[in-house]
Amino acid sequence: MNFVSRILAISLLAALLAGCGGSQEQSSQGEQTSQEEPTAATTTTRESTTAQGGDATPQTVAAAEAFLGTLDDAQREQATFDLDDELKTNWTNVPTSDEERNGVPFGEMTEEQQQAAMAILEAALSEEGYEQTVGTMVADEVLSGEGSGQFGIDRYVVGIFGTPSETEPWMLQFAGHHLVLNLTVAGEDNVLTPSFLGVQPSEFELGDVNDLAFEPAGVLDDGTVRPMGEENDKAFELINALDADQQDQATLDYELSDVVLGPGEDGRVLEPEGIPASEMDADQQALLLYLVREWVGIVNDEDAAVRMSEIEDELAETYFAWQGPTTNGEPIYYRITSPTLHIEFSHQVQPPPGGILHVHSI
Q1: Where is the domain boundary, 192, 225, 258?
Q2: Are residues 74 and 186 in the same domain?
Q3: HSE toward the beta carbon, residue 161, CA cutoff 13 A
Q4: Do 187 and 74 fall within a single domain?
């Protein structure tokens, strides 16, 4: 019997609640998608693909209710909040020793409760999005193994704002070091924004993780794990597809060392900078959409198709901005913005002699 079915009496199929519907605010969407090479004719809506599990809402609601059902009264009080509670904006990507988080920590849960918490994500995220989430958590366990008490899977928390419902709005907040998923469910409209995706270390060997008893880690392939590798590699592919004049137009004339719209910046909007997609050729535009899909594709195929269609409709108003070298492996920053989209990616640099320490993304 698989991981999810041990927790729920239903089959929880992989699907993510995407930012779809009529949102007119900038939004950050997380995504991992298929690896086919893009061309000018690449379809980003994947209309021919059957959505995994169809509508994710009933599955996610059932998983959230099952999780709450495993908690005792004190834990349930710790895990639940009113939907309009201002604490939902109190999210951060920094270690929990520096900031408090909302919800019940994994370290205070039984194994059954931990599995039920992960089952919410397995219901809500695509297969690739779930694997990326697990990869980030395991990376934090790598840091914990290096002797710091600030890191590790036990420090991730789960909070639920409002009452899980298939019709009325509610929100899941799943948060830890380098990972904050703010997942709002409002009937068929599901929004993952603002969410922070990151990882430290940026890559690791799964076999080198000591005494890993975290059962979901079984979804990761043996060998080198790069939870945000595609977001890195596809960006370098895009910048190197631009000619010299286009690269100059895309390059910011100032330096950034981290994402701009991180914790505490909810609702802020940046003016577009860089090169607009309207000044790219068809193949370059396809590469840009191929990169964007790394965030949008955390959602199930059906919702991702809707969101990508919206993004394609405003492609002419979508900007790509870059800072740093164009050789893969070097630290860089980039940003993708449109009237309803905001993505940032930033390498965090190691102390001298330098190199990439970890990744931040919004």
Answers
A1: 225
A2: yes
A3: 20
A4: yes
Claim to verify: residue 92 and residue 135 sit in the same structural domain: yes
**pLDDT, tens digit, for every residue of 269-314?**
999 999 999 999 999 999 999 999 999 888 777 777 788 999 999 9
Domain that holds residue 160: 57-225
pLDDT digits (tens, 9 = 90+) for 97-129: 666 899 999 999 999 999 999 999 988 888 888
- The Cβ of residue 331 has, within 10 Å, a number of other Cβ atoms equal to 18
**Is residue 35 situated within a structural domain?**
no
Mean pLDDT for the chain? 84
Please tell me whether residues 315 and 330 are part of one structural domain: yes
Q: Is residue 355 part of a domain?
A: yes
- 141 and 88 within one domain: yes
Q: Are residues 355 and 241 in the same domain?
A: yes
Question: 180, 199, 225 — which closes off a domain?
Answer: 225
Question: Cα(328)–Cα(346) distance, rounded to whole angstroms?
Answer: 14
Q: What are phi and psi of 291, to 5 degrees?
A: -75, -45
Using one digit for the tens of pLDDT, what is the confidence trace for 50-100? Answer: 334 357 889 999 999 999 999 999 999 999 999 999 999 989 998 876 668
Answer whether residue 314 is part of any domain. Answer: yes
* Structure confidence at residue 232 as a pLDDT band (50, 70, 90): very high
Convert the pLDDT of each residue in 147-201 to its tens digit: 666 888 999 999 999 999 999 999 999 999 999 999 988 888 778 889 999 999 9
Q: Cα–Cα distances in Å, from 234 out to 121, 169, 277? A: 25, 35, 16
Residue 221 and residue 234 in one domain: no
Task: Classify residue 43: in a domain, yes or no.
Answer: no
Are 221 and 237 contained in the same domain? Answer: no
